[in-house]
């Protein structure tokens, strides 16, 4: 239940609470030896990459404890001594398991046997690897059209596994490669590609040491990217201005106590983070950014030639005049109404931008998961371009990615749109004709399964059903498939939502030794800032039957495709061979194997960082966007989904949310006290939440508890994935098709 509102959590992010939580999960998962030893190698130059978030590692000095509280949870969750074996599945029917909570399912331990669903008994039972591969190959070959299969990817697959996966899928004949990016940062990729020519951020970790101002917009680093707090702490200590923009007050943006600073810990002395903290209404970021740009233009008009970087604008950009005209025409009344902020508040943070020589803008899903998500990202770019804050030290765009290798997956080809140059190089190297028709993203794949156009679904990691919008529809769609294949380390909800046939294929984790013919293998990952480095597991595998993701993909490809190029089993014998092939297809990986042998790896070329604009105009593009009207009918609220502090994506480590003062409960809705009073309700009341999507159908979740919280009036928040059933499948961002999980129109009622 929530803490006493009169005595809410007052501590900093990090601190003693982080140490206590880390110790608790190590003990709970019975991973004192295995997990603790692994932690000493996490994010080290000769260790393995944290299976959690994609925040980069320092290039120079690294601490002996280069991890955060959530990194501890991710490593220990994988290093647990608990096992989900044949005896477990003999004991539990699928029907019984479906009644268990997501937390219970994953907390049972590591999967250790390949499994097949038996509809006669309603049990999963062990199956030989050879039979599993034969089943997959035969089923895929039986399809009338390769596009009747969809191949999902989570963000934890290595570059090597992801490259083989997309190669296999395209040689099979489809671009149906939906991935977790479709659900989160697709708006960033689309918005950035259209404006600066590359779908990635433009900053390095070193830029945080030089920035004069850092804008953190629609992001909660204390929970979702805790190691980022170290960079923000360093910036704050040297006097950089940090502007936090978030509808909710989040503790990590207020103050941080580094658990590895002994002196500060003993004195309980936290570092203040945010210089200014704005709480726009949910979805009001585009109006806010328009207001900031409007104030900057007014400053330029008052002192012509002294505010904007005209040399940069003239040499490197297009469409500035159109952008400036539209912003000047925007009226302050509309900006205030739609942002939920006063003009004076907006002008205050605009002045912080103006006073800074070098500015970084960071963001996450608080910006991307709106109907106008792409336009909002492009307005962040507009703001940066006005004063030349892209392509120089201490400045740039910083979309903060989630999963540890979600960026690398996209770089090596996990994309439902096949880049022409990438396709041509693969065709030449492997002597096949790559499909050119755009494939299905996640939303499209769900619809295609639901109406029978996709008959086989494979997931390389992930937990699609709870992670996706319109949860009931997603589950019903998956149940219509002829075969569902899941590569995983732990049991999750989606494995239990099966089609006619279902296979669970257990794989090695990031922390484990990957022994192949050529010896122990390293894999590679790319972080949020385009740095690529090696990762080598140090734990013994959790079970004798576990295969690597790379080996599983290669064996499926060999069982499905006709004999010939490439040598799939040769790839498995030595992953260096895969990297040689990646280099041939993607020249940015030149000398791949040699460069990952260097401590800390290497940085991929970033064209926008070098002020090379791979756009249709050959320049960076200013864009124009109207401020969206967010007016709701009387009595309705705007709901955003959020993570608790004790979870990572769909993985629930526990039922507490320490920083928000919520304990032992996840079915909660956070509301402004005025909204509670206006409805004649009270804290701890049970409510039903009803959403209203573009299809006209009402969706409901029940049994949610009211929690008063510091959130703008007219807004609400609830945890992901519990609130995902409220997101209509057709409620998506224009241009990216990203589900609108941060702008859900709802009503609440008692019960």
Describe how the helices and strands are arranged.
Elements: E1 13-14, H1 15-28, H2 32-39, H3 69-79, E2 83-84, H4 86-91, H5 94-97, H6 102-106, E3 110-111, E4 115-118, E5 123-126, H7 129-141, E6 149-153, H8 159-172, H9 186-196, E7 213-217, H10 221-224, H11 228-237, E8 241-245, H12 251-254, E9 255-257, H13 262-267, E10 271-272, E11 276-278, H14 285-302, H15 310-316, E12 317-318, H16 320-329, H17 332-339, H18 343-355, E13 359-363, H19 365-368, H20 373-386, E14 396-399, H21 406-411, H22 420-430, H23 442-450, E15 456-460, H24 464-467, H25 471-479, E16 483-488, E17 501-506, E18 515-516, E19 519-520, E20 523-526, E21 531-535, H26 549-560, H27 568-573, H28 575-585, H29 592-596, E22 602-603, E23 620-621, E24 637-642, E25 647-648, E26 651-652, E27 668-671, H30 673-678, E28 686-692, E29 698-708, E30 715-719, E31 744-750
Parallel strand pairs: 1-9, 2-3, 6-15, 7-8, 7-13, 8-11, 12-23, 13-14, 15-16, 16-17, 24-30, 27-29
Antiparallel strand pairs: 4-5, 4-17, 9-10, 18-19, 20-21, 21-22, 24-31, 25-26, 27-30, 28-29, 28-31
Helix pairs in contact: 1-3, 2-3, 7-26, 8-26, 9-20, 14-17, 14-18, 14-20, 23-25
Provide a compact summary of the structure.
Helices cover about 35% and strands about 15% of the residues.
Structure commentary:
With 751 residues, the protein is an alpha/beta fold. It has four domains: 13-79, no CATH class; 83-180 and 405-600, Rossmann fold, CATH 3.40.50; 186-399, Dimethylsulfoxide Reductase, domain 2, CATH 3.40.228; 637-750, Barwin-like endoglucanases (Beta Barrel). It is 35% helix and 17% strand. It has 30 helices and 31 strands. It has a six-stranded mixed beta sheet, with helices on both faces. A hairpin with a 2-residue loop joins strand 25 (647-648) and strand 26. Helix 8 (159-172) runs parallel beside helix 26 and helix 9 (186-196) packs across helix 20. The longest helix has 18 residues, at 285-302. The protein is globular.
């Amino acid at each position: 239940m929530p803490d006493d509102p009169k005595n809410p959590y007052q501590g900093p992010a990090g601190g003693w609470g982080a140490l206590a939580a880390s110790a608790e999960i190590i003990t709970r998962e019975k991973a004192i030896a295995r997990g603790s030893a692994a932690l000493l190698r996490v994010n080290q130059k000769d260790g393995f990459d944290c299976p959690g978030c994609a925040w980069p590692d320092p290039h120079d000095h690294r601490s002996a404890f280069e991890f955060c509280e959530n990194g501890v949870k991710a490593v220990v969750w994988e290093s647990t001594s608990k096992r989900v074996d044949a005896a477990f599945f003999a004991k539990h029917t699928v029907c019984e398991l479906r009644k268990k909570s997501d937390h219970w399912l994953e907390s049972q331990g590591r999967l250790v046997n390949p499994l097949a669903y038996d509809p006669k008994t309603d049990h999963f039972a062990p199956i030989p690897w050879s039979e599993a591969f034969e089943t997959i190959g035969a089923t895929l070959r039986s399809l009338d059209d390769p596009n009747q299969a969809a191949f999902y990817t989570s963000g934890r697959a290595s570059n090597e596994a992801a490259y083989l996966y997309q190669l296999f899928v395209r040689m099979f004949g489809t671009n149906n490669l939906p991935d977790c990016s479709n659900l989160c940062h697709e708006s960033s990729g689309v918005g950035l590609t259209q404006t600066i020519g590359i779908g990635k951020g433009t900053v390095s970790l070193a830029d945080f040491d030089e920035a004069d101002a850092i804008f953190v917009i629609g992001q909660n680093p204390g929970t979702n990217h805790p190691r980022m707090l170290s960079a923000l702490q360093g910036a704050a200590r040297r006097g950089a201005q940090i502007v936090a923009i978030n509808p909710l007050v989040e503790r990590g943006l207020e103050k941080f106590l580094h658990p590895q600073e002994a002196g500060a810990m003993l004195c309980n002395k936290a570092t203040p983070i945010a210089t200014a903290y704005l709480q726009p209404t949910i979805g009001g970021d585009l109006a806010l950014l328009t207001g900031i740009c409007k104030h900057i233009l007014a400053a330029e008009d008052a002192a012509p030639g002294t505010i904007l970087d005209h040399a940069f604008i003239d040499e490197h950009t297009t469409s500035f005049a159109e952008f400036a005209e539209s912003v000047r025409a925007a009226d302050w009344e509309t900006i205030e109404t739609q942002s939920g902020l006063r003009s004076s508040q907006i002008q205050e943070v605009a002045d912080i931008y103006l006073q800074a020589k070098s500015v970084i803008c960071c963001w996450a899903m608080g910006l991307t998961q709106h109907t106008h998500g792409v336009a909002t990202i492009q307005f962040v770019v507009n703001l940066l371009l006005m004063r030349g804050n892209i392509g120089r030290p201490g400045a740039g765009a910083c979309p903060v990615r989630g999963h540890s290798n979600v960026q690398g997956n996209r770089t090596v080809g996990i994309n439902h749109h096949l880049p022409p140059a990438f396709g041509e190089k693969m065709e030449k190297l492997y002597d096949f004709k790559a499909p050119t028709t755009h494939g299905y993203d996640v939303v499209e794949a769900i619809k295609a399964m639901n109406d029978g156009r996709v008959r086989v679904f494979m997931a390389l990691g992930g937990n699609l059903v709870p992670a996706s919008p319109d949860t009931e529809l997603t589950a019903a769609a998956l149940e219509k498939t002829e075969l569902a294949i899941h590569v995983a380390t732990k049991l999750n909800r989606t494995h239990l939502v099966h089609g006619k046939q279902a296979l669970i294929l257990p794989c090695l984790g990031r922390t484990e030794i990957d022994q192949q013919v050529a010896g122990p293998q390293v894999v590679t990952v790319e972080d949020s800032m385009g740095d690529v480095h090696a990762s080598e597991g140090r734990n013994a595998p959790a079970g004798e039957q576990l295969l690597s993701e790379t080996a599983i993909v290669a064996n499926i490809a060999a069982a499905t495709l006709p004999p010939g190029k490439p040598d799939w089993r040769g790839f498995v014998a030595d992953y260096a061979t895969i990297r040689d092939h990646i280099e041939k297809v993607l020249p940015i990986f030149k000398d791949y194997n040699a460069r990952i042998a260097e401590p800390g790896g290497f940085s991929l070329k970033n064209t926008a960082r070098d002020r090379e604009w791979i756009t249709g105009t050959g320049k960076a593009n200013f864009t124009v966007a109207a401020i969206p009207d967010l007016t709701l009918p009387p009595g309705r609220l705007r709901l955003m989904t959020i993570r608790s502090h004790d979870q990572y994506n769909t993985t629930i480590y526990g039922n507490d949310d320490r920083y928000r003062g919520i304990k032992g409960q996840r079915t909660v809705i956070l509301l402004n006290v005025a909204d509670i009073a206006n409805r004649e309700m009270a804290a701890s009341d049970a409510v039903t939440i009803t959403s209203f999507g573009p299809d006209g159908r009402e969706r409901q979740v029940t049994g949610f508890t009211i929690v008063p919280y510091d959130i703008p009036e007219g807004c609400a928040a609830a945890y992901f994935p519990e609130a995902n059933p409220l997101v209509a499948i057709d409620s998506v961002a224009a241009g990216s098709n990203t589900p609108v999980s941060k702008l859900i129109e709802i009503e609440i009622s008692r019960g």
